[in-house]
Design brief:
- This protein is mainly alpha-helical and 70 residues long.
- It is 83% helix and 0% strand.
- It contains 2 helices and no strands.
- Helix 1 runs antiparallel to helix 2.
- The radius of gyration is 16 Å and the shape is elongated.
């Protein structure tokens, strides 16, 4: 038997999940900045683009899963 969550509990869980998604995306983009400095501009830019794509993907998944109205 599944338990139902209240709106407040759903919101608190959503905040925790969003924090983790943002942290992962930001960490990848920060790694890209470091690669720009350490290796090459092109390699760093690729990592930054990957981080941005990951953040957009997470946003699309969350909008679909939680039916957030834009």
């Amino acid at each position: 038997m599944k338990k139902k969550l209240s709106k407040q509990q759903e919101f608190e869980i959503l905040k925790l999940v969003l924090d983790k998604f943002l942290l992962v995306g930001f960490a990848i983009m920060l790694f890209g900045m470091w690669q720009m400095y350490a290796a090459s501009i092109a390699q760093g830019f690729i990592w930054i683009a990957v981080g941005a794509i990951l953040l957009i993907l997470f946003m699309v998944l969350i909008v679909k899963e939680y039916e957030i109205i834009r």
